[in-house]
Amino acid sequence: MTIQWFPGHMAKARRQVTEKLKLVDIVIELVDARIPLSSRNPMVDEIVQQKPRLVLLNKADMADPEMTKKWIEYFKEKGFTALAVNAQGGTGLQEIVKSSKIILSAKFERMKAKGMNPRAIRAMIVGIPNVGKSTIINRLAKKNIAKTGNTPGVTKAQQWIKVGKELELLDTPGILWPKFEDQEIGYKLALTGAIKDTILNLQDISVYGLRFLEKHYPERLKNRYNMDEIPEEIVDLFDIIGKQRGCLMAGGEINYDKTSELIIRDIRDERLGKLTFDLPENLSKYDRD
Ligand code: G4P
């Protein structure tokens, strides 16, 4: 799903999340484990405010496991509980209720002390498009909830999904926008498939991907494209890959667009292994403090 975000859409999205916040005890913020900061909404702290929050690093099955550990530490230092999950495969999801209970234990103790009846924890999912919100809701609901479009004139009542006895989840997630003004973030969103019909130039995305691999995962780059050494000039690297994979035009010239598409597809489809593009050791650029 590609959404074109305009100021009006952002204001509406923010309003919708703010409205639903009143209904829940906790916000479950979904990020992509491969880009735990680039896949965050730039204003999420401001929007969610003091509401207790659990951060889920989803698609952890596709991310570099060593980096995921570091990211969990990073969030912990920021005062958030973070869990690595795979909504598609269902791994790690059983921790959601456990962690939510711990985060909310003081609140629920206070409610109990006031003589209020025990009730399930109420939660809502928020995150940017494609981060896996629907997948996780369906998984937790253990059934397929149809995605509801905007049908004019039909107001859908808010539905709660029971997740066991201890958690209730709003059936519609809060959809927030990514920080797409930053070109580097744009490349990372494209390389992880968060933006598909991309407005960014394919060659620029693939150059960014190749440079990143060259710096952080050089052995994988060499292995994938059968190279002893990585050439210094990026055009030479394109030539090697393009020639090897038959991305040629009539006359035998390298088709750079086709080569770019192939590189991007290889990265998205894990042909270069489990990759994490946001690096915790390189945080100053992203830190919002
Ligand atoms: P959204 O509601 O936040 O927009 O995201 P959605 O659940 O639709 O998920 C987007 C894509 O990501 C889906 O693939 C979904 O299967 C995949 N996905 C979600 N969670 C995980 C996960 O933990 N691991 C992996 N590997 N994939 C996950 P799709 O519909 O097939 O779209 P696509 O494959 O064409 O991107």
UniProtKB/TrEMBL annotation:
List the residue ranges forming a coiled coil, or say none.
Answer: none
Keyword Transmembrane helix in record: no
Highest taxon above the source species: Bacteria
Q: What PROSITE patterns would the database entry show?
A: G_CP (PS51721)
Q: Which Pfam families did the record assign? A: MMR_HSR1
Q: Where in the cell is it found?
A: Cytoplasm
Keywords assigned by UniProt?
A: Cytoplasm, GTP-binding, Nucleotide-binding, Ribosome biogenesis
Q: Where is the CP-type G domain?
A: 14-178
Subunit structure as annotated in this protein's UniProt entry: Interacts with ctc. Interacts with the immature 50S ribosome subunit. 2 molecules of rbgA bind to one 50S subunit.
* PANTHER family linked: MITOCHONDRIAL RIBOSOME-ASSOCIATED GTPASE 1
- Describe its function: Essential protein that is required for a late step of 50S ribosomal subunit assembly. Has GTPase activity that is stimulated by interaction with the immature 50S ribosome subunit. Binds to the 23S rRNA. Required for the association of ribosomal proteins rplP and rpmA with the large subunit.
Q: Family membership, please give it.
A: Belongs to the TRAFAC class YlqF/YawG GTPase family. MTG1 subfamily.
Q: What is this protein called?
A: Ribosome biogenesis GTPase A
Q: What is the lineage of its organism?
A: Bacteria, Bacillati, Bacillota, Bacilli, Bacillales
